[in-house]
Model the fold of this input.
Amino acid sequence: MKIGIVGLPNVGKSTLFKALTKKQVDTSNYPFCTIDPNVGVVAVPDERLQQLADLYHSEKIVPAAIEFVDIAGLVKNAHKGEGLGNQFLSHIREVDAIAHVIRNFQDENVTHVAGKIEPGEDLNTIETELAMADIATIEKVLIKIESKIKSNDKDAPGQKIILKNIIIALDKGKKPDIAELKDDEQKFIKGLSLLSLKPELFIENIGEEQLNNFKPVIPNSIPICAKLESELADLDGTEAKNYLKELNIKKTGLDQLIVESYKLLNLITFFTAGPKESHAWTIVSGTKAPAAAGKIHTDFEQGFIRAEIINWKNLLDAGGEIPAKEKGQMKIEGKDYIMRDGDVVYFRFSK
Done:
């Protein structure tokens, strides 16, 4: 799963991305991740994993990970190809969600492209560019739809109406709502990779003086001081904790961003744990046990027999697998079991 980091020039996007990449994990443990200088594969903070590793005295710990992509090229009129417009649009279509970085700090040495700090206006510029790009995409599709209508394609008239309604919503500055569409209609719209339909979160890049009295301009935004995060990323764990304590900050902005990005993509974590390795695995909420097993190895899914499952907290409280089984807390689940966040699993499969 990839989160695209998007923002206007000089908002601190590159500083934020560099701080994220300093938290980069060993990509050899994540075969599906992209190896690219513009992609950071970052560990998802999760205290449960360390506690499981301590229980089993695991030799190795592998956290869950999420990918952040530094997407360059967003300027006003990017949808017309200005700046790195076309490259920008192609890169942003490849991500699963968008993290908007919006400047809300004062610094005379860092010029704002518009000459003034107005977070709301910056976000409006970004979303206008995304909407205009979507309208251009839809207009091209409508040309093909008209041809299909002339050929008596049964789905084309309905698709035309849906696309026209999406354009109306975008023209009004609204997000299109496709929740009420039929499954096949939703599949058609999702196939267009419209930017305005991607899940999004908002980051207000603030100054250090705003850390303890921050008032968001963008509703539900995450306050991050990219400059501070970059400094913290250069410190070892103990130094970083002491520095945060001095600043009266409980959790770094980057950790908050990573966790919120994980939630935004509707992801949950299950664990496998033992003396050799404690491993956090990422799946979409609602995933059944065989598909979860397939995240570890395709053979596990194809030969799935059953799963032995216990909640991580129950396992810790019991003091291990044997006492947990004696208390009846280790459950045997079949193919229809829907995985839950925090499950510790041992999969049984036929070879």
